[in-house]
Design goal:
Strand order of the largest sheet: 3-4-8-7
Structural class: alpha+beta
Distance between the termini: 83 Å
Order of helices and strands: EEEEEEEEEEHH
Shape: elongated
Strand content: 25-35%
């Protein structure tokens, strides 16, 4: 950003950023407290810089800082590092399961928030957290699991888990995760992610097939 250094005053503009389908503006302020001074009798050679006595320059007045309100909340994105044991599994075109260890919080009730990005009446990007109802949260051994359904295919999702106190008030969020539902018709969308038991069955079937092929090869050799 460039400003006119000869004209005192305050300047304000917006820097526009875009990352993928998301865009937002950041306000920037600058102030020129006095116009530049020209000192007569100081000659300079073209292509060189003439020495200037900095002690002759007046002290600039102290500028009063003007705080800028944040354009978007700072907790709009997912955690760069999730707590140990947090995972998103069984992702399909319309559903997913978020699991976290029960040891993360002494709470037994939780709330699921889903991030929504939209353009406000002033044309600026707004970030809000929706609180959908009807999301079942189950206790599974030493974990909790939130089962998300009714999602849209081929969309990124940002979800945070918030513990609830005994009086119903919300505490600080436990974590925020991001995931992407596959497009309809894609291979991950047709076949949900196999569970551990399904992977074991697949491995067992491959092992039995390999042993059968080895026996057939051995009999054929003799």
């Amino acid at each position: 950003m460039e400003i006119d250094g000869q004209t005192p005053g305050r300047y304000r503009t917006w820097l526009k950023f875009k990352a993928g389908d998301q865009s937002f503006d950041v306000p920037v302020e600058a102030e020129v407290s006095g116009a530049g001074r020209v000192f007569p009798g100081v000659a300079s050679v073209p292509g060189s810089v003439a020495p200037v006595d900095l002690s002759a320059l007046p002290e600039p007045p102290e500028a009063t800082p003007s705080p800028l309100a944040p354009v978007i909340p700072f907790d709009w994105s997912a955690d760069p590092r999730l707590p140990k044991g947090v995972q998103v599994s069984h992702i399909t075109t319309t559903s997913a399961i978020i699991e976290w260890p029960a040891s993360l919080s002494p709470a037994t009730r939780f709330r699921v928030d889903m991030r929504q990005l939209q353009i406000g009446p002033d044309g600026k990007l707004q970030v809000t957290w929706l609180q959908p109802t009807g999301i079942p949260i189950e206790a599974r051994d030493k974990n909790y699991a939130a089962i998300l359904t009714g999602l849209h295919p081929g969309q990124p999702w940002t979800v945070r888990i918030v513990p609830l106190q005994a009086n119903g008030e919300a505490g600080q969020r436990l974590f925020t995760v991001e995931f992407l539902t596959p497009f309809r018709g894609s291979l991950p969308g047709r076949f949900p992610r196999p569970s551990l038991l399904q992977w074991l069955l697949i491995a067992l079937g491959a092992l039995l097939a390999w042993q059968g092929w080895q026996r057939w090869r051995h009999r054929r050799a003799f």
